[in-house]
Amino acid sequence: MQVPGCKDVQLHGQAWLPDREPTAVLVISHGLAEHCGRYAQLAERLVVERGYAVYALDHRGHGRSGGERANIGRFQYVVSDLGTFVGRAQRQHPDAPAFLLGHSMGGAIALACVVRNPGGLKGLVLSAPALASGQAVSPAKAWLVRLLSRVAPNTGALTLPADAISRDRAVVRAYESDPLVFRGAIPARTLVELLDAMAGFADAVPKLRVPVLVQHGTADSLVPLAAVKPLYDRLGSPKLRTVRLYEGLYHEAYNEPERDRVIADLVAWLDSHR
């Protein structure tokens, strides 16, 4: 499906629907450099096993959506795009409880979207969300990247190692050969926009007013647990917060060899909050 985005960018959306009225709606916000089609296996399991309707959006600059490759333009654009898409999915199934799931960069976008406007959502799921950079970007590099963001925003500034996403070699090979995955260096503009968004999350996370599930592998090198754990401890209120840590798992917990256990935890949490 084609969805209009901010600044007249045409976005690509996808839906996996049960053959009956859905028991719930889940909207997925994918990570940096990837696309929503990579969540087909997870979506199909939720549709077949639980009767969920699953929707996912290619962020601007990603997958089949318009825009410069891997360049989100402004963080506020992708947050607004996602909010509009969530509203569209909810209107398709007004009687079904709705949830939002965000992975990595998509987790940062999803969190910002829900803090800005909960929109009747029953809950938020964050998979290794990119809420803090830790020591990944030195002050000197940050200064250079900010300069490039202004004068040459599409200049590559960060390369993501494919072998850091999963310990499953088949997953890594599929990622490396996927024509819709961006395999170049991430543009300076996107990196700066994410860094600026991260700087505001310390103040934003306590304002969360919906139930939240966090799922994160302890061996994640792309979003190190040590960088984001202090924010997890402040997400909303303790009564609404569930944090699941998976020993030894890499960045994409839903694509790890232990994926069945991770997905079972996700499904149990979703069902308990419907």
Structure in words:
- The chain is globular, with a radius of gyration of 17 Å.
- It has helices spanning 40-50, 75-92, 105-116, 139-151, 169-177, 188-204, 225-232, 259-272; strands spanning 2-4, 10-16, 25-29, 53-57, 98-103, 123-127, 156-158, 186-187, 212-217, 241-246.
- Strand 1 and strand 2 (10-16) form a beta hairpin.
- The strands form 2 sheets. It has an 8-stranded mixed sheet, sandwiched between helices. Strands 7-8 form a two-stranded antiparallel ribbon.
- Helices cover 37% and strands 18% of the residues.
- The mean pLDDT is 95.
- It has one domain: Rossmann fold (3-Layer(aba) Sandwich).
- The protein has 274 residues and is an alpha/beta fold.
- Work out the strand percent: 15-25%
Determine the number of helices (DSSP H or I, runs of at least 4 residues). Answer: 8
Calculate the mean pLDDT score and round it. Answer: 95
Largest sheet: 8 strands, mixed
CATH class: Alpha Beta
The number of distinct structural domains comes to 1
Q: Roughly what percent helix?
A: 25-40%
Dominant shape: globular
What is the name of the CATH topology? Rossmann fold
Strand order of the largest sheet: 1-2-4-3-5-6-9-10
Task: Offer a quick outline of the entry.
The chain is α/β, with parallel strands linked by helices and about 270 residues long. The protein contains 8 helices and 10 strands. It has a single domain (about 1-270), classed as 3-Layer(aba) Sandwich (Rossmann fold).
